[in-house]
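Sample entry (98 residues):
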Amino acid sequence: MHDQSNMNFDNLPILFEHQDNLPIGRVIKHWQGTGETRHVMGKIEENTVQGKYVANALKAGVYSGLSLQHIFTKYSDGSTNKRAVEVSVCESPRRANC
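Predicted structure, serialized as tokens:
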């Protein structure tokens, strides 16, 4: 188990299905939930085709999952680090209830 409590989500890009060429917004707030859960609040930019599509799809319930891409590093002294890269709106997140 790796500590996520100090992983920084400030201003992370929000992408559609982890596609670098489909940015749809930014994380504007994040907080620690119970246990190892993390919560994020984002702003979807509806001034792009993909942003407008995802905003409408979220409202319609087509997409409801979030997925975090992060980089995990294990150092020679045994310590570890996780760095958040992006959050994606996706149809089927890897973890249940995300």
